[in-house]
Amino acid sequence: MGRILSVNLAVPEPNPAKGGLTGINKRPVDHLVAVRAPGPKTTGLHTGLVGDQIYDIVNHGGDDQAVYAYAREDYDWWQARLSRRLPNGLFGENLTTEDLDVNGAVIGEHWRIGPRLVLQPTFGRIPCSTFQHKMGEPRWLKTFTRSMRPGAYLRVVEEGEVWAGDPVTVQDRPAHGVTIAQAFRAYMTEPSLLPELIGIDGLPDDLRVTLEERLPRRR
User: Fold this and answer.
1) Which pLDDT score, from 0 to 100, does residue 196 have?
2) Residue-wise DSSP of the chain
3) Sign of the C-alpha dihedral, residues 81, 11, 21, 119?
4) pLDDT tens digits for 70-96?
5) What's the pLDDT at 218?
6) What is the mean pLDDT of residues 179-188?
């Protein structure tokens, strides 16, 4: 059984990469946070966590990216390679987890968190220029992509609340077996894997359309 190590909400800061503000800077909070479906992308400046904020509503937010989770174990892996401390929330995740295989999560499975909240992994995090600037690491986008440790976006299946220390149990794992890491690899580096990805349940509809457009063309 995994657990929520920290719940992280945005502390807005300037975004030199795109102008305006960004909510990628998230810091742990020590209180109960309500979680609900935020609605379709581009309709609001919030994620699924009440009190969290986003500013790039074209590329972030919406029901299929309601919550972002990243594993503390993956942070520790990065710390060893970057030789720097990486605090919870630095990657912009709402939930930092422990003892939970986030990248190995099967798309469409259910995570029961605490007594009421149920979330469902949908896809991995696609790195962007805001993330690159935040990290300040040379060629960070390519480095992050090669690691195959993207973390997972999740949709809200049953609304509830979350607090640091809540247990996480995995339920209703789909038989297709396609994980967040496998789907990320197909999207980012191995288009030959796309056909098996497109047909699975739980994949966001707009992403499915994008993947169909990226299918290798037969000659």
Assistant:
1) 83
2) -EEEEEEEEE--EE-TTTSSEE---EEEESS-EEE----STTS-S--SBTT---S-TTTS-SGGGSEEEEEHHHHHHHHHHHTS---TTTT--SEEEES--STTPBTT-EEEETTTEEEEEEEEPPP-HHHHHHHT-TTHHHHHHHHT---EEEEEEE-EEE-TT-EEEEE---TT--BHHHHHHHHHT-GGGHHHHHT-TT--HHHHHHHHHTSPPP-
3) positive
4) 999 999 999 999 999 999 999 999 999
5) 54
6) 94
